[in-house]
Design goal:
Blueprint: E1 8-16, E2 20-23, H1 27-32, H2 36-43, E3 47-50, H3 57-72, E4 81-85, H4 96-108, E5 117-121, H5 127-141, E6 147-155, E7 168-178, E8 183-193, E9 199-200, E10 209-210, H6 212-234, E11 253-256, H7 261-276, H8 280-289, H9 301-315, H10 319-328, H11 336-339, H12 346-356, E12 365-372, E13 376-384, H13 396-401, E14 404-405, H14 408-415, E15 429-435, E16 441-446
Parallel strand pairs: 2-14, 4-5, 4-6, 11-12
Antiparallel strand pairs: 1-7, 1-8, 2-3, 6-7, 8-13, 9-10, 12-13, 15-16
Helix pairs in contact: 3-4, 6-7
Length: about 450
């Protein structure tokens, strides 16, 4: 099957993560009074990537971009746009992309990116998806337009807080162009937005305010709403499920925002509950766990919501759900289990997980369920390109094994900015050298 001439999507993916990590099952679990099994099975996080003193979201973005360019033998003149999605901004006004371009020009020469436009988007964890939408439209307008979307973040919560074990750091760079070798994006998308206080970081604060249980429910509500919106847009277009089938049956892979891997299971259970009602398979589900709770059966919305949550947990133990989840969703969580939450990049870390583990096969369909606190969700889809076999692997699993484990003491010093030197001195990488008296950040390539 040949691709249409204006076919646009993700041609390649590059991933960068720090060389340091903290195991959640060792000193950390003991010091926080947590059961290691809860963290590994109940939350799904085994290790958290930790940035060194010389690293920030901008250095990680620059590193991911450099790898993407080198992998694809691209020069500065080949790239017309570099759009960055982040909630770890290093400046309140200056776009992070200008810092990133400045770092890359240390290698390619001053002024080499002068004709490239860059902008920084903020919308919590969904920002990179909106950047991808924008750059994809631009790339499709003219033959030869090549853009890059970079998702880069450091998920940081206060020491001893409930969210501490869901931290992480990393950047994912997406090469966007016509005739992509990885994912050809469909034009249809679904959206959901409302004003919520589930997760936010007030000006001047280094760590986020998280209303945990409420945040989880906002995630579920938004994804359900955006998926329903997507179904209204896509039916009769790229997605035409036969009678007796669900829209989710049309997808080989369903990728979701991954704040922690277990949350993906909750979201999948919510989605499949919504999708399977009225189908033959739902009769089997109800025979096992009974009918869905109905709002009128409870004295108030809080009681109904709690009953629905408990029902979905029972649903997640049914053979029907386990088969669908294991085949369509779980493989995308591979890297997040060992890197942690990287906010805007977690959805695309899922794409890299599928690519590195050999799960992406030509002609398969993928659904992308992106969520950002505050709150907003976007659902879009694409087909795996017939050229997927031409994209070389990245050696990510080997790179994970080569990292250095931090002690709890060194992790806490880095977390609080109390360590005077890097745990691993920078070498062959971009580094933050420091800030001047005006607060301007200075970066360089350290050989």
């Amino acid at each position: 099957m040949s691709q249409p001439p204006n076919d646009v999507g993700i041609d390649d993916v590059a991933v960068h993560f720090p060389r340091l990590y903290l195991s959640t099952t060792g000193q950390f679990a003991a010091a926080r009074g947590l059961e290691p099994a809860k963290l590994v099975r109940g939350i799904g996080v085994e290790q958290m990537a930790v940035p060194d003193r010389h690293e920030d979201a901008a250095t990680m973005a620059a590193s991911a971009l450099l790898e993407l360019m080198q992998r694809n033998r691209l020069g500065p003149g080949d790239i017309g746009r570099i759009y960055i999605g982040t909630e770890s901004s290093v400046d309140e006004a200056k776009a992070m992309g200008t810092y990133v371009i400045g770092m890359l020009e240390r290698i390619y020469g001053r002024g080499s990116f002068s004709e490239c436009s860059t902008v920084e988007l903020k919308s919590a964890c969904i920002a990179a998806s909106y950047a991808l939408e924008n750059v994809s439209l631009w790339a499709g307008n003219k033959e030869g337009n090549i853009g890059v979307v970079i998702a880069t973040d450091i998920a940081r919560y206060s020491l001893n807080s409930p969210g501490e074990y869901t931290q992480g750091a990393g950047a994912v760079a997406l090469l966007v162009k016509r005739q992509p070798r990885m994912i050809s994006l469909d034009q249809e998308a679904g959206f959901f937005t409302r004003d919520e206080n589930d997760f936010f970081r007030p000006l001047g604060m280094k760590t986020a305010v998280v209303n945990g249980k409420h945040s989880n429910q906002c995630y579920l509500d938004a994804v359900e709403g955006a998926f329903a919106s997507y179904c209204r847009s896509a039916r009769g277009g790229p997605i035409c499920p036969p009678h007796g089938s669900a829209v989710t049956d049309a997808f080989d892979h369903i990728l979701m925002h991954i704040p922690y891997p277990r949350m993906v299971e909750y979201a999948a259970a919510s989605l499949f509950c919504q999708e399977w009602q009225g189908l033959d398979r739902w009769n089997s589900v109800e025979a096992q766990i009974g009918p869905l709770p109905r709002p009128g059966d409870f004295p108030g919305p809080a009681e109904y919501q709690e009953a629905s949550s408990q029902y979905q947990r029972r649903f997640a133990r049914t053979p029907e759900f386990i088969r669908a989840f294991s085949a369509k969703v779980e493989p995308s969580t591979l890297l997040s289990r060992r890197i942690g939450n990287i906010y805007t990049g977690s959805l695309y870390l899922g794409l890299a997980s599928l690519a590195e583990s050999g799960h992406l096969l030509a002609g398969q369909r993928c659904a992308f369920l992106s969520y950002g606190s505050g709150c907003s969700a976007m659902v879009f889809s694409g087909r795996v390109s017939r050229q997927i076999g031409d994209v070389p692997l990245r050696g990510l699993l080997k790179r994970l094994q080569e990292r250095s484990e931090l002690s709890l003491t060194d992790y806490e010093l880095l977390h609080e900015g109390a360590r005077s030197e890097s745990a691993i001195p920078p070498s062959g990488e971009f580094a933050l050298l420091g800030e001047d008296e005006q607060g301007y950040r200075h970066y360089d390539w350290v050989k």
